[in-house]
Structures are given as structure tokens and as C-alpha cells.
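Two proteins were folded this term; both appear here.
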Amino acid sequence: MRNETYLSARPDNFQPLTPLDFLDRAIRDQPDSQAVIWREQFWNYRQFGSIVGRLRNYLGEMHIESDDVVSVMVGNRPEMLAAHYAVPSIGAILNSINTRLDSSKVGWILKHTESKLLLCDPTSAVTAKQAAKSVGIPVEVFSETTSDNLNILTGREINLGDLCLEIRDEWAPIALNYTSGTTDTLKGVVLHHREAYLNTLGNVLGLGFGRLTKYLWTLPMFHCNEWCHTWAITAAGGTHVCLDRVDPALIVKALQELEITHFSCAPVVVYMLLGHAAIENFQPARRITLATGGHHQLIV
């Protein structure tokens, strides 16, 4: 296309691509559809929007601004899912940290990203607090029960408004992820709003996500934003089923009781499932799509 001035992007002919738009649409078009299941708790899309809103309000109280980095060290909980929407909705950058890293590596990431805040869950609290102290940034622990920590799962209903309002540049970073540092120091990898949006739609089409999808969270959300499935299930209007830890017995129980249609995991988890006693009598009543992949070495 010719680079003519009159063809330049302007509000009436251009909408930045961002996966935040998928939650906007879900809340608008299917507010009462089941959005998230965790343990014994259920939230529809309107209620999940309030969880996102409460986290966004907290970030405002902490004076997080556009282009700031917010680090999150949380397992597959609703709060981690909410962070994928709340953090970028104010123009900030989400830095998801591997919950298996030690405090020295977490501290290195916090310093390298110039992070302004670290959010964690109770299982990562000790490591997170040590790392945050080493670089001098605040840390907050998510909790669904105690009043002395951050509880965003309950509270008044919040109208999110236009979640994409602060997104003016689709090439702005939405997430900053780090490699595991297997062969050298950890390396930062930037994901932009446009890339996340397009990859999200590719996952929806490639894996057949839809409104009847019930996606079991077995692959960590911190791992490449779980291949953008944090946004893809929402884009399809499906249900996120959060699982606290990778345990074959828990996975099989969820597959049996919650009508799971899709899940993702590394090949080693597939082998764990196939070798576990719980799988022996498992007879799925419906087709379950499994996405897996990894690096393999052939020794001749």
C-alpha cells in the first residue's frame, strides 16, 4: 500500500490489535457464560471482569503507570489469569516469572526488567519476598482467605469500561518473558500486543477452541503466557479451568468430573499420566484434545 498521508492510521479507520479486546467482547456478548473454575469456585465473564478490575485498581493504588513492568510469580490461579488483562490494560508490561526459580535468579530478573512491583501467591511467597528485598521493590501476596494479603477474588462488582482504551500502539510490549538460562544468562523476550492478538487467533483456529471449550490449565501460565492460551480461551468464549499443580490424579479427576475438552502439557506430563494408576479405568465420554510438544534428541 502506498504511504500516502491520507491513508495514515486515525481513530476512524484504525483499531490497534490487542488480546484485551477479547475480554471486552466476552463481557459484552456473554457476561453470564462460565469463564473460570478454580477448586470449588466458579465465575462468569462479568464476575471475572470484576476480578480484573480489582487488580487494575490495586495497580493504580501502587502508582503503576504505562510502560512500567509488573512481575508476577503465581501458579495457575485466577489471579494469574487476571494479571494478563489488568496489567496491560493500563499500558504496563507483564513479566511472568517461573515459580521454580530460586531467589537469586528471580532477583536478577527483577533488576534486569527494572520491575516496579512483584505479585506472588502463597507457595512462592518466601522466594518472592527474598528476591524483592534484594532489589528494593514492593511485593504483594495474593490470597483468597486472609485479610492481610491481596484478595481480588471477592468484592464489589466493577464495570471495566473499555479495557483497550490505553492501547494506542499495537507494537507496544504486552509481556516480557525470560528464557530459563540453560546455557547462559537468562534472556528477555518481548511480546507485543499485535503478536499476542494474532497468535491467539491462530491457537483458536488451530486447536478448535469455541464456546463449549473447557480448557484445563496444566501447562504453566508463566510459560510463554501459556502459548497465548491465557487470551485464546477468552477469545473463544470458553472456560478456563485452573489447576494448582501438575498431579496426574488431579488431572484425571478434572478430566472426568469437569467435562474438559482441551489441555496442554509437556511430553513428560503425558508420560506421567500414561503411567499413573488413575488413568487405567479412565473412559472419556467425549473427545479430549491434547496439545503437547518439546525438544527431542535422537541418539544413534
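Next, the second protein.
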Amino acid sequence: MKILLVRLRQIGDVVFTTPTFAALREYFPQAQLSYLVEPAAAPVVRGNPDLAQVIEAPRVRGARGVLADLSLGRALARERFDVAIDFHGGPRASLLTWLSRAPRRVGYEVAGRAWMYTQRIDRPRALRPRHSVENQWDLLAALGVPPPSRDRHPVTMVVDGEAAMRVESRLLAHQAAFSVRLVVMHVSAGNPFRRWPMASFAEVAAGLAEADPSVRVVVTSGPSEEGAATEVIAAARQQLDEARREHVLSCGDFSLSELRALVERAALYVGGDSGPMHIAACSRVPMVSLYGPTLPVRSEPWRSRSIPALAAESRGVSCRPCGQRVCEPGDFRCLTHVTPREVLEAGVRLLARNG
């Protein structure tokens, strides 16, 4: 049996599909799994031993994009997939799933596109207190696959050996050998609803560096907020004595593969509900995760509960959770009410538990 899995974007959503790989291999031992994804998120699934191949679908605008998708659709049809599962449900993903010509196509009951699937699963529009992994698993349940287990089916991303070597070389260049304890702090997010203030991140970074002389804080950011890491590093260093300023490292940008290798080396991860947080969840690193408009029950690290993870969130905010389109109060209070002291104390507790 040949199975095509479709999830074009975003990074965190692609991570949330990875528990399905092992489950499908268990339920269909002879199956060959292929994954269709856009290039930006491809590193998440590339190299996964449960996948026979990763097929990239570059985004091209205009008429050229339509022609490219039709060509890709023909290539998918030549693969003769038996089953196609569309975890995405967007217009492009639906079209490519249909173009695959798989005789069994499983997708969500989406207005205007449901006809592209042979088997349709209801997807309520309301924000349910249910994890995204479980929501996506509804598509597997249609094939008879048993419910997921955090211990048997955690999120996964393979550590790339070459990326790990690059990361280690960069850390050594900043006097961060294995004898130090790394804290990885990711300070950006894909939209303003999930961006904790830079000043708050800087206060936590300085506090962690000051709390333990063996700690080195690596600050990272993504393309959505270029320069955010530099801003946080500068502000954190200003709060530290001269002897500790270099304990907040300036290591430059990290690719997704390098970020995965970096958190594998870390003693703690701190960051908001974003793609990098879910990449960190693929490791066993203790985590402090910040939640604003989203709820931990929907997007907390999907892995064994024996691995330490703490949520920093504002409770009692009436407009939370929200659809992240308009901030009704206008001040993003669901995030700004999370205090640096709360996050710092959580981080210090986890570092102490992690030896």
C-alpha cells in the first residue's frame, strides 16, 4: 500500500503530523509513506525513517504556479497512491490531493472543496479544548487507526548530523563547550498575537544568566522578526555585570535543522507557541512555553508527560482563546499579562530539576 500524506504548512502544524508516521507503520506494516510539504517546512520531515520519500511543493505565484501545481499533480498521479490523507484542508492542498488520483482520499468537510475527497471528516470551526494532534488524528481514525499515545507516538524530527556539527562548531567558537548548560530562548513568532515583549525576554535571559554561572543563553529568532534576537541580546547584556555579559551568546541565525540540533544540546528551552517551540518538543529538553491567544491543551508539547514542561499563561482573560485576527482589547493582554518573573521562576525550577 502506498499512502500520501499532505500538510503544506506551517512548521508547527507539520510537526503535529509526525506522530501519525509511526502509527500508520504499525497499523499498515507494509505501507510506503510519502509526505507532500512546502520547502520551508520540509526539514521537519526530511530524513524520517518512517517515510519512503518527501515531496516538496514550492509555492509559485500566478499562472506559473497553477501550471507548476498541475505538473506536480501529474507526477503524484504517476506514483499510483492507494490512499491520500490531507491534513491541511487548504485550497492548494485539496487540489493536489485530488490531482493525486488516489482512489481513497481522506480530508475535512470543508465548504467548496469537500467534493475532492472520497471520505470526509467533520472539522468543527469552534476552538475546542483538544490537542491539534488529536484533531488531525480524526483523519487516521477514519482508516481504523487506534487513538494516539504521547509515549508511543510523540512528535519527531530527526537530528541532522551535519547540522549538529555546524552547531557544535559555532558553540565552541563562543566558549560554550559541553561543560556549560545551554538555555535556548526563541524570541519571535509568526504573528503579533504570539509575540511576547522583547523587554520581557531580555529580563528573563539576563535573570537565567545571572542565576547560574554555568548557564549560557542562546537567543534565536526567525524571519518574521529579523533583528529580534540582536535586540534581546543587547538589552539582556545591559542588565548584567561585565563578567556575565558574554553569558548571553550572540551566535547568529539558525536554520530549522540547526535549531533542532541546538535544542538537543540544551538544558532548557524558553519560547512562545510557535514552530520552533514544537521543534524543541521533538527533543527531551525541559520547556517553558508562553501562551497568549492559544491554550496549552491545544498546542502544548506532544510527548511523554514524564519530560518536564511548564506553561506560562494569563488566566481569566475573557477573550482568550481567540482566532488571532483582531485583538478586541487592543493591547494583547493575553501575552503582556504574563510576567518575566513568572517565566524566570519557571525556568530556574526546571534547570534545578534538570541538574
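The longest strand covers residues 32-37. The mean pLDDT is 94. These notes refer to the second protein only.
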